[in-house]
Amino acid sequence: MPGKRVLLLGNEAIARGILEAGVSVVTTYPGTPASEIGDSISEIASEAGLYMEYSVNEMVAVEVAAGAANSGVRSLTAMKHVGLNVAADLVMTLAYTGVRGGYVIVTADDPECYSSQNEQDNRFYALLSNLPCLEPSDPQEAKDMTVSAIEISEKLELPVLLRTTTRVSHTRGPVAYGNLKKAKPQGQFIRDLKRLNMVPAFSRPKHTVLLRQAAKAKEISETSPYNKVVRKGTEIGIISSSSACNYAVEAADLLNLDAGILKLGMTHPLPERKIIDFINQYDKAAIVEELEPFLEMQIKAMAKDHAPNVQIYGKMNTEFFPREGELSTRLVGEGLAKITAKPMPIDFREIDEKYAEIKRDLPSRPPILCAGCPHRASFYVIRKVGGDKTLYPTDIGCYALGISPPLNVGDLMICMGASVGTAQGIRKATGKDTIAIIGDSTFFHAAIPGLVNAVYNNSKIVVAVLDNQATAMTGHQPHPGTGLTGMGSPAEKVLVEKVAEGCGVKYVKVVDPFKTREAAAVLKEALKQPGPSVVVFRSPCTLMDLREKRRRGIKATPAKITDKCTNCMACIKLLACPAIGVEEEKAVINEAFCTGCGLCISVCPYGAIQGSCAE
Amino acid sequence: MKEFNIVIAGVGGQGTLLAAEALGTAAVKDGLNVRVSEIHGMAQRGGAVVTTVRIGERVHASTVLEGQADVLLGFEPIETVRNLKYCSERTQVIMNTEKIPPTELASKNLKYPSSEKVMKDISLFTKKIAQIDAAQLARKAGNSLTQNVVLLGALAGTGILPLKKQSMIEAISELVPAKYAEINLKAFELGIQSIEKGKEA
User: For burial by CB atoms within 10 Å, which of A364, A513, A553, B14 has the most?
Assistant: First the structure.
């Protein structure tokens, strides 16, 4: 209902924007903090008459959407920041071909690495590709800018980046609905050799076209309602964007600063005239932005000729604001206090000192594998067979948690799919047994070329695919191995073992990780192979399994520790299962957490744990 | 009211997100401006989680500043202590007494901090402490998974929340599965009563 005010997560607001913009093709590969965009659309896609897919990776997601957008259909692809690295090859040249239907790429950045391997600032992709970029600061803007980004894209015939951060994607706030626009999933592909085929002779003139469109984008930015002075003041001029602007507004309140604030919602191309007019009103300007000095670099370059007398503060020479991690009202306040020589009204140091004292002895609680997680069984087997001498490059997913003691499986983790490739170099350079650890969704996403390479160059590695039948970490989205699509319809199951065989791997086995002895025997044999081998450890994610059992009214039967227990603590030392604790020097099973997976029964040297067990 | 800041701390899987969403939904029903911060993904797997709710016309950021919480709603004692940096002498702490021992205690042969130690740590920051046995009240309501809603009830019961009780009830009913709505509303009432009883005593 238009006008209705609803509490929405930033990502849900983007999904609402998709419906209000009449976007008809949505593609994604799940990744925190972007996942709920695709998930929200997946829930309603068939009802809303649009097409949604979980693509095999971000590159393919952009390819599918780019094909649709070049057939005149409004499209959108959502991904986490590092996903854009995967898709970058395509995006850089898609900027040359352009699009006919509006096309938006949502990149959700993750300052502070809450759920990511790095905290790269994807606004630089806008600079690199010459594509326009919009940056919402809250859920309302996230929705509104999704609609605007589609309109800008269609007007310029260029893809547009919509860049959020964790604090935008995962903040809930009130959102006023606009009108829905009916999806139009049927388009028409118009053949145009020179426009769409990027051979050198056609690419060169298209580069000129791109620069011309970028100049038009700059004019849009100059008049964009998203680039506006949100507060007038005389003491200092602040320029900010995204969640950093929320902190800047509140920090100015906190310090009682008479600050003018120019909020930028379209941050590429920058509205140069607007910025110069704004900073020329002040002696001092502060650029408040998260991560890299993206705005600061460009604003300083503009100011050199057009505002040479304004002193510009940020993070480039002296760090008034940190370049790493996420910002906060406190960090922005402390920076502004230094710049304006004002005192901070709250004594944070006193709080810090008091807190440090109680924090010192407090037990930590890092994320861990769930009770009943099949990965724990796989890691137990892998560690038992491979021991300390084997090297374990690992990958992105829940199983990255295997690096923690006592499982200790994981020696090199970089990005999606890298375990299989890096394993080959490690094996070459060290001659040691090397077992690459990778999940099912990650295998399909980025490991297949690496596996082909291992076959082709005969690299003696073992690839252990920890197949839990879902993209688990991001919310159990389906993938090519699950037999289900984003539209909720059944699909052909692509099996990891068939893919491996097709790639030419000679030794391919599927094991149940909870049958630890059998799995260990297979893994030992795999290590003896003269070439690459693949062992698929297959067992569904315990969270999905429990949900399914609950639905069917099946109750878990927790394991029980009997009198035979000698307090050897092997179960605790080997597994670190959240369902096994210690009370009065004795191992005890917490019945509320135990799923009855039976792994502790397999590892107990005295047969002192009772219950069902897969062995 | 300038702003009202709530910090909800617990362990992944305890239902802190739903509690925060219920507060945010109730705020929107009451026509108030609100921001709720959440952390998903890696941070959720049985790890320490913190969610914040900020209500007020001048609120822009979703995160709470050190020392600026009006309420710390602790779903677990250790997690309550872990988030004391948000507290000052004006903060009302509401703490669930149900312990979830971190896995590292067993493997490192450490003990869960004593109740005395937990209370001493909290009282360094604030004297306004209410302890709730949410697990017992949730079982009484009919499902041990409703501890989060018991704690919401306790928060409502303090009377300091700038939200209408009716809006909270509506928000909870909308957010939980329909077949569990009745049990959850009972859990909410039991939470309210537990605080009101405490006040009389």
Answer: A513
- Residues A323, A341 contacting (CB under 8 angstroms): no
- Determine whether the interchain pair B36/A174 forms a contact, defined as Cβ–Cβ distance below 8 Å: no
Longest dimension (CA), chain B: 51
Res A28 pLDDT > 50: yes
- Tokens 């952390």 belong to which residue? B39
Measured between CB atoms, does A247 come within 8 Å of chain B? yes
Asked whether the beta carbons of B135 and B144 are under 8 A apart, the reply is yes
| Rounded CA separation A276/A281 (Å) | 9
- Which residue in the set B44, B60, B110 is minimally distant from A250, CB to CB? B60
Report the percent of chain A where pLDDT is more than 70.
Answer: 100
Name the closest residue on chain B to residue A331, using Cα atoms: B65
pLDDT, tens digit, 9 for 90 and up, residues A505-543 = 999 999 999 999 999 999 999 999 999 999 999 999 999
Measured between CB atoms, which of A250, A352, A363 is closest to B102?
Answer: A363
Q: In this structure, what DSSP letter does residue A471 have?
A: B
| Nearest by CB: B46 against A6, A361, A368 | A368
A366 to chain B nearest CA, in Å?
5
Q: Element (H or E) spanning A589, and its range? A: strand A586-589
If phi > 0 it is left, if psi is from -120 to 50 it is alpha, else beta; for residue A460 that is beta
Q: By CA distance, what is B118's nearest residue in A? A: A358
Choose among B88, B96, B89: nearest CA to B8.
Answer: B96
Name the residue facing A172 among B36, B43, B109 (closest C-beta): B36
Reported residue count of chain B is 201
Closest residue by Cα to residue A439 from A465, A421, A415: A465
How confident is the prediction for chain A on average, in pLDDT? Answer: 97
* B93, B6 contact by CB (below 8 A): no
**What is the rounded average pLDDT of the residues A157-186?**
97
Model ipTM?
Answer: 0.96
Is 60 exceeded by the pLDDT of residue B200?
A: no
Residue spans of beta strands (DSSP E) within A219-371: 228-231, 236-241, 259-264, 266-268, 284-288, 311-313
- Band (pLDDT 50/70/90 cuts) for residue B197 is confident
pLDDT digits (tens, 9 = 90+) for A103-147: 999 999 999 999 999 999 999 999 999 999 999 999 999 999 999
Residue B57 structure tokens = 């016309």
| Nearest C-alpha in A relative to B110 | A363
d(CA A308, CA A276): 10
Q: From the CB of residue A70, how many other CB atoms can be counted at a distance below 10 Å?
A: 23
Q: Determine the residue among B5, B103, B109, B123 to mutate to test chain A binding: the one whose Cβ has the most chain A Cβ atoms within 10 Å.
A: B103
What is the gyration radius of the CA atoms in chain A, in angstroms?
Answer: 27
Q: Is A5 in a helix, a strand, or coil?
A: strand
Beta strand extents in A171-265 (DSSP E only): 171-176, 228-231, 236-241, 259-264
A15-32 burial, b at 16+ Cβ within 10 Å, e below that, comes to bbbbbbbbbbbbbbbbbb
Question: Which residues from A are below 8 Å from B37, CB to CB?
Answer: 167, 170-171
Place of tokens 């009802």: A47
* Nearest by CB: B43 against A114, A363, A475: A114
For residue B39, give how far its alpha carbon lies from the nearest alpha carbon of chain A (Å): 7
Q: What is the pLDDT of residue A67?
A: 98
Token pair, residue A16, equals 């609402």
- Least Cα distance to B190 among B130, B149, B143 occurs for B149
B50 forms bridges with which residues in the sheet? Answer: B9
What values do phi and psi take at A588, rounded to 5?
Answer: -135, 150
Please determine, for residue B201, whether its predicted confidence score (pLDDT) is greater than 50.
Answer: no
Residues of B in contact with A138 (CB under 8 A): 35, 60
| Region B159-172 average pLDDT | 97
The verdict on pTM exceeding 0.95 is yes
Burial environment of residue B35 by CB neighbours within 10 A (0 to 12, 13 to 18, 19 or more)? buried
